[in-house]
Amino acid sequence: MTQGPDTSPMVLIGCQRSAGAALERLAVEGRALPEHVEWRSVSCGGSIDELMILEAFESGAERVLVVSCAAGACRSVVGGERAKARTEAARSVLQEIGFEEWRLRYETMAPNMGVDLLRWIDELKAPAEQSVGDA
Amino acid sequence: MSDAALIDRSVMVVGEGADARGAASALSDAGYAVVAVPHPAKNGDGSARPGQRIASVQGHVGRFRVQLEGASEATVGVGAIVLALGNRRLPTDLPRPQGTLLPVLTPASWVARVHDDLAVEYRVVWARRRVIVLLDYPESTPKETAAEALRAISDVVELAHPEVCVYYRDLQVDTHSLERLARRTRELGVVYCRYDKLELSFEDDHLVVSSEEGQRVGDVLVVAERIAAPAAAPELAEELGILLGDDGLLQDVNMRYVSGSQTVRRGVYVVGRCHLDADAETQAADLQRLLGEIVELLGRESLPLPDEYADVSSEECVRCLTCIRTCPHQAVELRSTDDVTAAYVVPEACWGCGMCVANCPVRAISLVGAEHLVKQEVV
Predict the structure, then answer these.
(1) pTM, whole model, 2 decimals?
(2) Which ipTM was obtained for this model?
(3) What are B172-181's contacts with CB under 8 Å, separation 24+?
(4) Fold that domain B90-226 belongs to in CATH
């Protein structure tokens, strides 16, 4: 059986130069984030820390997607690598307190990958055998 | 508080070749005082060659303090630093036996030779020649040199109609200009052979190329040159805190909102073949872009402040130096004011990435101007 779209609250944390620019492009095309997704923009993936991710869950998000520029494309050189490391650190904290791994996802992107961003948002949901309320 | 009033409007140009001379001349014509520092690469044994060199660089955009050593020692204040080190082109080493009469040419020398021959009506001779062009031999050919080779093939085949076969292994035609050039040469009848293993055997006046696709005989061999990075690039990249690519060339920050000459350290620029090996037209455009950026930076009353920049609370700073270590833009330093020593982010040098904010263990740093970013609504 095919799963329907998950409309539980979600937070998207991303670099304004990749995810932010992609959202601007999508807006020009008349597309936008689904209403259940809250966009939190940062100036660089390097400024994302564990607390920011944990605060997103604390504020009611069921799922958090972190995106930054790809390695080699970050204006501040190591922003993407730091964002990835911080996401993994936050994931280990979340797992300790019983959150499932799928609830937090990290991706790298370029400004022309808005469609991929929307797809990741759509894909970020409980695996088929597990419902969202099982946390 | 910013020291914006203390901008030094002179520019240091580093390098000893044509790129440095061109940049110095253009900046001088634009009205900037130019300090030329050749910074010759060290000899193989580590000994210094004659000429002034950069010993150390302190300060930030608009007010760098550069310690020079060599012929004379001095400390020079400049507002911006331009690295124009050039690069070196080296002939590809071929296992060629002594005494062979086979012409082995670079793309540029091939074009020149054909033009010389056509001037004395050797069109018929070139039309009968079988030319082998080797790309990616022995390892890989830089994209710029591949484009140069394809352009040479297109020019020569249109002019003199030789039979041309290009051997390549890793050539990726993934830019518009390369794709256009490759298509054009194919339309002109040029044959492309991809190889994994290639064997060359030289006879008196011809060579035999053996690959998975069989054997082919050539009367002329054209080999793309190797590009060697400037020998002084690694030490300057380390001293200035800027990026060095895997190929040894200096790197600009090639991202949206950022131009092609600016490096990760604000006020330090790269120009010419030390970051971009390309044709003369592209190099000229590169120099013009640099001039525009220097004017944008130093042609104002005060240095432009970024939209967002980090600010350290000196009362909360515990002087752990984490921010100084993590800043990718060399924008943080330790300052003492009123008997308080604390980290200080130079606003004009800051890119507002917030990396220091995220890494400060006592949360003593905030990002000024970034309040609008978090929880921003997308319209």
Answers:
(1) 0.78
(2) 0.77
(3) B172/B143, B175/B143, B177/B147, B178/B143, B178/B146, B178/B147, B178/B150, B181/B147, B181/B150, B181/B151, B181/B154
(4) FAD/NAD(P)-binding domain (3.50.50)
